[in-house]
């Protein structure tokens, strides 16, 4: 008998299960049944691919035994089972730090937090909401030795060699005195139908029920053992859409996603003809917790003729659709398909292409609040798709949304085009650090004055790369307002005259700033600000700082133009300023404050502060 200490985070988790996550205790049945179903899936696949099991007369089944006399509930399956190493890895520790992530994401809302249990792979521990004495007896398929895992949930567990005839797992749960409701047939059956009705294997309930024989004084009542199937045991996706209700789809999603809320959208499609396959996809209302992690978990299960193959193939859908959950069931792949066969498989490539288009078309049709929810959760992934999926670029451009300089909320390109000048066919945009920086940018002033809408792309790291790749939307060219002349009523001759008038000033400022700026020039794009900075978009460095930053590499800044507002009182006074020291300070202040307005930092903050202090002192 070997005693072990639980991993530190698991000790934390056990306390949470016991003392905090108590509002939805029934989910322990959902989690344990789901684990049993996964174990049966794995053995089913082994039976098809391993010669040692091909002739095994076996069919998957989950058994739930209710024992009121012993105050215990047992959940058993004939799945793949576990050996000692599996018990250590799956129950004693969490190899992928799922427990730590779970604890970090707790909200304090017991109902919401109970939904996190399955999402972070810690479903087994939910049993400690109703029990403080759990035994797991298990034998792995193909191995001779069975093991018992036992714990009272306080910090230690034991693993002991035992005897068990068949492969699979039996979980013996001694219920707490106050949890006897989970020994009644009606209560457990309700939970199974609620969460696990469409688990593909029969869930058999075994219980004792009063049965009376005889009549009158001769009547005798005794407990009789009975067994009933508690679930429909149908692969939901294989059932005709006409025979399913909205509630059926919702229940299946809730079991798959380990949540209580409804999905944002579901799509059930059957394709027949050259290739036959069925897909059932869900878009959750809330993004999966690991969506933005490099080691995200795939939420798509691949089946062949209703036989589970894998849930770990991230190539079944494009990476940017990693929030989609569901099932792909092919009629054409071989049942003994290997992971190697899955790679570069033409059948799967066609399914992927078809499924991607169907999903994007469904997203495009979302309206009102549903569309707003989708945008709030997944808009950045749609942008990711724009620069990774050229084939579906047009659909993605119909879906992606941005903030606007003139409208509230998020707007699509179609929204913008419906309001814009149809003769020019130009969509104006601006990329920056944040919405606040963009809205306060001097570069917007002329567009505000002319009542021209500008899209505000405030995810700088991503939008700097994505926006130039978009190029155009349905023959409407995207224009970066930092790279073009602003709307202006002045003629070229008038602009030339102003440039000549202030040439002395621009030359003096350029002399002070030196190579820090590419050029100092007058502009008509400003209405209330004295100056602004504009990137040299002709430079090969333009738009690449963020790309290099993401790769952890430093590179020179893109050259900047300093533009002056010749109608601003400060510029007019500066043109007449003779004090060389104050002039130099003001030149730098104009440049650095213009950078700050664009979310850029002065190279030397201390020097900037000192210059402001000197100029302010002089003015007093």
From TrEMBL:
User: Per the similarity annotation, which family is this?
Assistant: Belongs to the heat shock protein 90 family.
Q: What does this protein do?
A: Molecular chaperone. Has ATPase activity.
Q: Which SMART domains match?
A: HATPase_c
Residue intervals of the Histidine kinase/HSP90-like ATPase domain: 24-179
Q: Which GO terms describe its cellular component?
A: cytoplasm
Which molecular-function annotations from GO does this UniProt entry contain?
A: ATP binding; ATP hydrolysis activity; ATP-dependent protein folding chaperone; unfolded protein binding
Upper classification of the organism: Bacteria, Pseudomonadati, Campylobacterota, Epsilonproteobacteria, Campylobacterales
Q: Which residues bind ATP?
A: 31, 35, 77, 82, 90, 96-98, 119-124, 169, 339
Q: What protein name applies here?
A: Chaperone protein HtpG
Q: Which organism is it from?
A: uncultured Sulfurovum sp
What are the record keywords, sorted? ATP-binding, Chaperone, Cytoplasm, Nucleotide-binding, Stress response
The subcellular location is: Cytoplasm
Q: Which Pfam families match?
A: HATPase_c_3, HSP90
C: region residues = 547-620
Quote the PANTHER family the UniProt record gives.
Answer: HEAT SHOCK PROTEIN 90 FAMILY MEMBER
Q: Note down the stretches annotated as region A.
A: 1-339
Q: Which gene encodes it?
A: htpG
Q: Does the keyword Kinase apply?
A: no
Assembly with partners or alone: Homodimer.
- SUPFAM superfamilies xrefs: ATPase domain of HSP90 chaperone/DNA topoisomerase II/histidine kinase, HSP90 C-terminal domain, Ribosomal protein S5 domain 2-like
Extract the NCBIfam families matched here: PRK05218.1
Name the InterPro entries for this protein: HATPase_C_sf, HATPase_dom, HSP90_C, Hsp90_fam, Hsp90_N, Ribosomal_Su5_D2-typ_SF
């Amino acid at each position: 008998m070997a005693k072990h200490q639980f991993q530190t985070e698991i000790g934390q988790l056990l306390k949470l299960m016991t003392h905090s996550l108590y509002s939805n205790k029934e989910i322990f049945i959902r989690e344990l049944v789901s684990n049993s179903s996964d174990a049966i899936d794995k053995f089913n696949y082994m039976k098809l691919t391993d010669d040692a099991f091909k002739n095994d007369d076996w069919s998957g089944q989950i058994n739930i035994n209710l024992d009121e006399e012993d105050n215990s509930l047992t959940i058993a399956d004939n799945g793949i089972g576990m050996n000692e190493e599996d018990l250590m890895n799956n129950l004693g520790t969490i190899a992928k730090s799922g427990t730590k992530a779970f604890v970090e994401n707790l909200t304090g809302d017991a109902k919401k937090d109970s939904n996190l249990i399955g999402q972070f792979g810690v479903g087994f521990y939910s049993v400690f909401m109703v029990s403080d004495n759990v035994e797991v007896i298990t034998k792995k398929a193909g191995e001779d030795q069975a093991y018992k895992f036992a714990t009272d949930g306080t910090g230690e567990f034991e693993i002991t060699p035992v005897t068990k005839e068949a492969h699979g797992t039996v979980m013996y749960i001694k219920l707490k005195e106050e949890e006897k409701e989970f020994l009644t047939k009606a209560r457990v059956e309700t939970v199974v139908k609620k969460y696990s009705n469409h688990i593909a294997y029969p869930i058999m309930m075994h219980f004792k029920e009063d049965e009376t024989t005889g009549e009158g004084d001769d009547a005798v009542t005794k407990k009789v053992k009975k067994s009933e199937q508690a679930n429909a045991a149908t692969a939901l996706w294989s059932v005709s859409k006409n025979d399913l209700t909205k509630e059926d789809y919702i229940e299946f999603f809730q079991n798959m996603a380990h949540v209580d809320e409804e999905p944002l959208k579901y799509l059930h499609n059957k394709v027949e003809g050259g290739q036959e396959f069925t897909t059932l996809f869900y878009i959750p209302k809330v993004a999966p917790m690991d969506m933005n992690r490099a080691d995200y978990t795939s939420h798509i299960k691949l089946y062949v003729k209703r036989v589970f193959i894998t849930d770990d193939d991230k190539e079944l859908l494009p990476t940017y659709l990693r929030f989609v959950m569901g099932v792909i069931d092919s009629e054409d792949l071989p049942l003994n398909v290997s992971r190697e066969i899955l790679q570069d498989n033409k059948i799967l490539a066609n399914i992927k292409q078809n499924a991607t288009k169907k999903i994007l078309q469904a997203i495009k049709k979302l309206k009102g609040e549903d569309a707003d929810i989708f945008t709030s959760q997944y808009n950045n992934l749609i942008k990711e798709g724009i620069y990774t999926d050229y084939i579906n670029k047009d659909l993605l451009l119909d879906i992606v949304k941005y903030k606007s300089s003139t409208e509230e909320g998020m707007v699509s390109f179609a929204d913008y085009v419906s309001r814009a000048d149809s003769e020019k066919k130009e969509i104006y945009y601006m990329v920056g650090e944040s919405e606040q920086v963009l809205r306060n940018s001097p570069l917007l002033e002329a567009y505000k004055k002319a009542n021209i809408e500008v899209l505000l792309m405030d995810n700088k790291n991503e939008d700097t790369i994505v926006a130039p790749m978009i190029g155009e939307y349905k023959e409407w060219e995207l224009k970066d307002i930092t790279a073009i002349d602003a709307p202006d009523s002045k003629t070229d001759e008038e602009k030339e005259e102003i440039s000549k008038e202030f040439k002395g000033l621009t030359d003096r400022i350029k002399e002070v700033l030196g190579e820090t700026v590419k050029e100092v020039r007058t502009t008509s794009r400003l209405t209330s600000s004295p100056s602004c900075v504009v990137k040299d978009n002709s430079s090969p460095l333009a738009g690449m700082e963020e790309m290099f930053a993401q790769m952890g590499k430093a590179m020179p800044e893109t050259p900047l133009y300093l533009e002056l507002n010749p109608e601003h009182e400060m510029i007019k006074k500066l043109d007449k300023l003779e004090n060389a020291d104050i002039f130099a300070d003001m030149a730098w202040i104009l440049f650095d404050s213009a950078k700050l307005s664009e979310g850029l930092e002065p190279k030397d903050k201390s020097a900037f502060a000192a210059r402001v202090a000197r100029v302010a002192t002089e003015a007093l």
